[in-house]
Amino acid sequence: MDREAVRRILGACEAALEAEGPVDLHRLGFWRAVEAVKRHPDWLDEFARRIASIDRRAFQRQVWIRLPLTPGLSLLAAGAGVGAGLVVGAFGVPAPARGVLLLAGAGALLATTHDLAHYLVGRAVGIGFTDLYVLKPLRPQPGIKVDYESYLRAPPMARAWMHASGALVTKLIPFLVIPVALAARAPRWTVAVLLALGVVQILTDLLLSTRSSDWKRVRRELRHARRQARRPERRDARHRARRPEHRP
Questions:
Q1: Euclidean distance between the first and final Cα of the chain, in Å?
Q2: Domain count of the chain?
Q3: Is the pTM here over 0.85, yes or no?
Q4: CA 248/CA 242 separation, integer angstroms
Q5: pLDDT: is 141 or 243 the higher one?
Q6: I need a surface site. Which of 96, 111, 125, 175 has the fewest CB within 10 A?
């Protein structure tokens, strides 16, 4: 896809967003244009801000609940604090209640740390964020919205780490709570449930998430990273091919 094709697609998306009604960016070719811009970092100055504007307008149309970033992060941090408190509190309750507290704490940590990890790693690599949101009533899991201009300007490996961070943290949570359960002498079923939860999450990622969600995005950005890494090699090869042969 060349620059002119990207301009046409972005223009069509902007026109669709000016009209009333739903907008299908995928059908309009928006994400193909985004991938083309990622493959050509020298196009970012022309297209990055425009892409971010289209992405944000479409996001605001389709999202069910949206919170400004600071209040949203505060809620997640409070939820993570409650989860950690429940886990630690298992040491101070009678044995039958320990398992319940540990599982409730693990659940709270799973629900809140995913997006916190995205945020912390993203900010560390220069990616900004704009909102916390819930996309649909039937999918109440919170999400965090990237600022797409900063996302595009970040190196692809940085984007990959940002996407991977949330998935990695949620996979670790059950296994981190297991030693606490053992130290607190929680009922054996508590450890069994935590272990099963951790294994199911890993299997789900292996079987499904590589084709959707975070791991799909990780694979996509790793492809861009490999492509960019090969680009200097290709330039060097072309340069050597053009260099006239030296004859003594």
A1: 45
A2: 2
A3: yes
A4: 18
A5: 141
A6: 96
